[in-house]
Design brief:
By secondary structure, the protein is α+β, with helices and mostly antiparallel strands. A three-stranded mixed sheet has the order 1-2-6, with no helix packed on it. A three-stranded antiparallel sheet has the order 3-4-5. A two-stranded antiparallel ribbon has the order 7-8. Strand 1 and strand 2 form a beta hairpin.
């Protein structure tokens, strides 16, 4: 996975997502986009987002990575972020396996 272009319009980073791109590489790219400040907060290196929680900052960085998709194992729809995939899976599982299905 290589940095291919930085856009000024939406402050997004574009990454090539070839068939060999693994979750490990994706997670490494997310980690490269956050830094810890002196006061212990985590900041996005692309925009002005700041969080006290590293996990929240990492989740935020997914919006800056284009060209990588996460697939629902139930219906094969794809999503750009873990958050949107999680939200979809809840609905998809209930739709496909019944409303009484619980996680």
């Amino acid at each position: 996975v290589e940095l291919s272009e930085e856009t000024e319009e939406n402050e997004s980073l574009l990454y090539e997502n070839g068939p060999n791109t693994s979750m490990t590489e994706y997670n490494e790219k997310k980690s490269e986009l956050v830094t810890r400040t002196e006061n212990g907060c985590w900041t996005c290196t692309v925009c002005s987002y700041v969080s006290k929680n590293r996990g929240h900052a990492l989740e935020h960085t997914e919006r800056h990575i284009e060209g990588f998709s996460l697939e629902c194992t139930n219906c094969e729809k794809t999503f750009r972020t873990n958050k949107t995939l999680r939200q979809h899976v809840v609905k998809c599982v209930k739709r496909n396996f019944g409303k009484n299905y619980s996680f």
